[in-house]
């Protein structure tokens, strides 16, 4: 057993309102530099939709993540031979067209244009070439466009839906959609790290944050295609790749990452998980249907005496073990089974988990009018919602039972709380629902508290980082102002 | 005139080589140690993908083969001469070198066209990039010229260039081998040393950081910022 600690995350999608505050907070701190304008380390997608970069989930196109070959887990995009042969030209690499060409506006037109019959406009200017451009796409171009034939219907997760389910989907997609905020998953089996020819990408041993050493990166671009979530980005100006750093300078000083801190819907939770690093390869090599369960099983019980003593023997600090015991992530993922990993079939073992949204649909179109189709408070989610199969494609490698479990539990908790506070649901019915959903009253209370009432300190349980031993933090962060990020001692000038 | 020739020869074939080699060694090492951030291939594939393929792939495969050939001629001059002693074999050698030269040249032309025509790529093309491209063009054209008009370049390399280079490395430069070479051969040598001279100041440094460790390292990389056991001890002491 090789116990390590990992800073992990839960995003409660039922609470996400799609306001993009997280994206802006991140952009303002990290990616407002030349060459990074197009990067959104944190982005929010409308689902169903094609996402950012367009169709990132299409691994036939980008060859991201891992696959099983003769029972062994191997990278889809590269291997030792291909690293040599594809180093001059990476065949699966997305280009700027798959993201978008960043632009600003020529505002002086508004002041300088001559008098005319029309209002002056601020024309868009490319931030790459400096020339006027026609904007063709943007980072959230399909925002709220769930019903559109170009975006929603091209969603990869719709692929193996039955025609009936698709019909149901298209009927209700005009009425329902949800948001998927995405950051780097800080995976246990990161494909970006495994693909990097220079060894520039690495996982920090202490907290599992995946970082990219700017001094080691040689722009071989393997990580860009290897990451199935497309969360490593290529800085076209400095000639180096960059990625989400989980705001490690903030985490090391006990603050939540900027996107977490700024989250309006309070959908985000951050905490420590203890896991057994010896099992990573074994679990990543399991067949698809076993992955969700196995991924959960790699996470260890922080209250187990044996785990604690083993963790101590492995150099994990008491403060970290303490944080692991208070971790909201542990509760959501393991204890309650509510949160699921995104696209576990990519086998990177992502450490960001999502609580799938309930998305009840209360009405349907009836000719020109809308009629109420549900008289119950909590409708039958087999019918009146995005098909279970769609959610399963996104969060459980196609296995619907996990989705049903988390949705049933969430519904039961709501029914129970409604019985307690409003009383228009019979407590007996609520208890029955809880029993069916594998949830005790105490658990329901805990879920309710954690979902609705939890404070800043309860949502973000950040262990002391023991900076007295950390190399990175010996330096004064202010010393590096005006330069690129932390630990980046050179001006990010291109070339020599 | 003779004196003038001697000065020219001394400058281009003694001073320039030593200047190039020492600059290459010292500046490359210094920059790698003090400013490793600048070591990058500075890929522009992200901005333009299609022309990139037709430039990069032929250029790199071509030039690697050609360089390998030069290395063999340099290291094994006797074997080379023995091989070339049969005219047919000499022709096979020269023709294949010429073909790979053409492949390299095609790639280079595509690279130059791409750098000129693609707007986004043009933005990130620097002056040093152009200097490199011009030097490489001179180098490849002079090489092709030698391969085409004097079809015994490989024998020359083995019989004259190799001893000349050996004399350079032995710090006892002997120009006798090359002073009578035709102009194009001399140009080929001079531009080669110029490329080596400018090498550490340009994007060419990416050649020095070819990712060979990848071939034998484990897939996952974990870095520890502190001594795990030490942390534990501190904890124990403080309890």
How are the SSEs ordered, and which strands pair?
The complex is a heterodimer of chains A (496) and B (239).
Chain A: E1 3-12, H1 21-30, E2 43-47, H2 59-62, E3 66-69, E4 72-75, H3 80-85, E5 103-106, H4 108-112, E6 123-126, H5 163-172, E7 178-182, H6 191-195, E8 201-204, E9 210-212, H7 222-226, E10 232-235, E11 240-243, H8 248-252, H9 258-261, E12 268-276, H10 280-284, H11 291-297, E13 299-300, H12 305-313, H13 318-325, H14 328-335, E14 352-355, E15 363-366, E16 369-372, H15 388-395, H16 400-421, H17 427-436, H18 441-453, H19 456-459
Parallel strand pairs in A: 1-14
Antiparallel strand pairs in A: 1-12, 2-7, 3-4, 5-6, 8-9, 10-11, 12-13, 15-16
Helix pairs in contact in A: 15-16, 16-17, 16-18
Chain B: H1 2-34, H2 50-75, H3 77-84, H4 87-117, H5 119-123, H6 127-149, H7 153-169, H8 183-198, E1 222-223, H9 228-238
How would you portray this structure in words?
- By secondary structure, chain A is α+β, with helices and mostly antiparallel strands.
- Chain A has helices spanning 21-30, 59-62, 80-85, 108-112, 163-172, 191-195, 222-226, 248-252, 258-261, 280-284, 291-297, 305-313, 318-325, 328-335, 388-395, 400-421, 427-436, 441-453, 456-459; strands spanning 3-12, 43-47, 66-69, 72-75, 103-106, 123-126, 178-182, 201-204, 210-212, 232-235, 240-243, 268-276, 299-300, 352-355, 363-366, 369-372.
- In chain A, strands 13-12-1-14 form a four-stranded mixed beta sheet, sandwiched between helices.
- The longest helix of chain A is centred in the last third of the chain and has 22 residues, at 400-421.
- The model of chain A has no long low-confidence stretch (mean pLDDT 88).
- Chain B has one domain: Up-down Bundle (Fumarate Reductase Cytochrome B subunit).
- Chain B has helices spanning 2-34, 50-75, 77-84, 87-117, 119-123, 127-149, 153-169, 183-198, 228-238, and one strand spanning 222-223.
- In chain B, α2 (50-75) runs antiparallel to α4 and α3 packs antiparallel against α7.
- The longest helix of chain B has 33 residues, at 2-34.
- The radius of gyration of chain B is 23 Å and the shape is globular.
- The mean pLDDT of chain B is 90.
- Chains A and B meet through α3 and β8 of A and α2, α5, β1 and α9 of B.
